[in-house]
From TrEMBL:
The keyword ATP-binding does not apply. It comes from the Bacteria. InterPro entries: AB_hydrolase_fold, FrsA_esterase, Peptidase_S9_cat. Keywords: Hydrolase. Pfam families: Peptidase_S9. Residues 1-21 are annotated as: Disordered. Belongs to the AB hydrolase superfamily. SUPFAM superfamilies: alpha/beta-Hydrolases. Residues 141-203 form the Peptidase S9 prolyl oligopeptidase catalytic domain. The keyword Oxidoreductase does not apply. This is Prolyl oligopeptidase family serine peptidase. Transmembrane segments: none annotated.
Length: 286
């Protein structure tokens, strides 16, 4: 039964030549922040920031940084690189200071990929429902887009393609659990405050995020099965807090010796000590 659940995500988008283009390069002192665009599907270009530490002497380890949700649909990649939003979410510059190259795209429905009239509306349920009636899922689309971003990352001469990590908070923490099950290039992943399993999500204060609605998944599977399908070389850090509803059930997901748990007092946050632990984990495994 291992891996059978993957078929429930439905068909993935067709791959196209990403044709990456660098449209901006900004000197940020200790690192360069590039803005790149690339194709994820025919006619669909995605913007992302790539932060490259200065002074690299060879290919460096790299991390995919996934932004949070927070119902802030006009904010995405810019928060992770410190241009907007909460300073505790600006972890790409901190990773650059530690020698990591980072790529931070907008997820579908956020920031430059939000097609609502004012660029602030919740388009995720539209994106999910229009796929569901066609036998597709938004999750497959989101994971496809992550894989294409990693394609660009590993194609770069400043990146060591054997040392790829993933880091995300909240929505990003959810994707940090799913992505390694589909892309074996991710050898170390950190999920912060986004690990609640499906079996604990049928409550009025949590529920499901549009991006993770997979018809028929819950009767037989849960996030334990997703984590259990990782390649043997992949390591996962679940970073969670005791008062965060999106961290419920964190200890239940420690399946096997590939998974570490860091449990903190506090709420839905990504504090400096939590980030430091995440960076140490990535440094250890990349």
């Amino acid at each position: 039964m291992t891996g059978d659940w993957k078929r429930l995500l439905g068909p993935w988008p067709e791959r196209v030549d990403p044709e990456p283009e660098t449209v901006e390069s900004v000197d940020c002192g200790s690192y360069i922040r590039e803005k790149v665009v690339y194709s994820v599907e025919a006619g669909e270009r995605v913007p992302a920031y790539v932060c490259v530490p200065k002074g690299l002497t060879g290919p460096a380890p790299a991390v995919f940084g996934h932004h949070q949700h927070a119902s802030q649909f006009g904010v995405g990649k810019s928060e992770v690189v410190g241009l907007r939003g909460h300073p505790d979410q600006a972890y790409a510059p901190e990773l650059a200071a530690r020698g990591f190259v980072t790529i931070v795209p907008d997820a579908l429905g956020f920031e430059e990929r939000n097609w609502s009239r004012d660029g602030q509306g919740n388009v995720s349920w539209w994106e999910a429902s229009t796929r569901l009636v066609r036998g597709q899922t938004l999750l497959a689309k989101c994971l496809h887009d992550i894989t294409v971003a990693l394609d660009h990352l590993v194609s770069r001469p400043d990146v060591d393609a054997t040392r790829i990590g993933f880091l995300g908070h909240s929505y990003g923490g959810r994707m940090a659990l799913w992505a390694p099950a589909f892309d074996p290039r991710i050898v170390a992943s950190v999920s912060n405050c986004g690990c609640i399993p499906f079996r604990l999500s049928a409550t009025h204060d949590t529920g499901l995020q549009a991006e993770t609605v997979v018809p028929g998944f819950v009767p037989r599977y849960d996030l334990d099965d997703v984590i259990a399908s990782y390649p043997s070389t992949t390591r996962l850090l679940i970073s969670a807090t005791r008062d965060d509803k999106w961290s419920r059930g964190a200890a239940e997901l420690v399946v096997g010796d590939q998974v570490e748990l860091a449990l903190y007092d506090g709420g839905h946050e990504f504090t400096e000590p939590m980030r430091a632990r995440a960076y140490d984990f990535l440094t250890r495994h990349l």
